[in-house]
Amino acid sequence: xxxxxxxxxxxxxxxxxxxxxxxxxxxxxxxxxxxxxxxxxxxxxxxxxxxxxxxxxxxxxxxxxxxxxxxxxxxxxxxxxxxxxxxxxxxxxxxxxxxxxxxxxxxxxxxxxxxxxxxxxxxxxxxxxxxxxxxxxxxxxxxxxxxxxxxxxxxxxxxxxxxxxxxxxxxxxxxxxxxxxxxxxxxxxxxxxxxxxxxxxxxxxxxxxxxxxxxxx
Length: 217
What we know:
Helices cover 24% and strands 31% of the residues. By secondary structure, the protein is of the alpha/beta class. Helix 5 links the parallel strand 9 (142-148) and strand 10.
């Protein structure tokens, strides 16, 4: 829904038109979530020390300019009580970066040999990421997600997950050495401040464009 997004859509529409295709447009209206990647809008401190953030969890939530402050609470498990124990706190959750056989994800008409494992952050968070709506209902103030098995360089600026609705709970991603520092602070219950000052823009308009190319079965 950003200006850059709309420019890209028009570029694709022009390319489709140049191929002689009729471009169809489906218009949608939604509330856009967006946060600049700078310390005035996205920041984490634990026990008074800055922790490097890889990215914000898309459409997680917003803290406003003041941020939220609370004790860190490391969580392990998947039950409802898992989140209740972090009520009023900032939860620290580990998300393993896993490998899966490619043939479980994408089918092929012809195979040239054995399927090799594939890894992608979206798959990891989709299968093993936390249920933020449960955390919000339990009264958690915010969530710090720690990638395990994904280094900070590869985790930097990852936009994952990118298909979920707004959660109304601020959450961020950390990895590598900063992730280990957060885990240690979470085990010790140190105080932290999370700033995720995202902007919510209601009534944004965006289009899905598509075209039909004749073919034979």
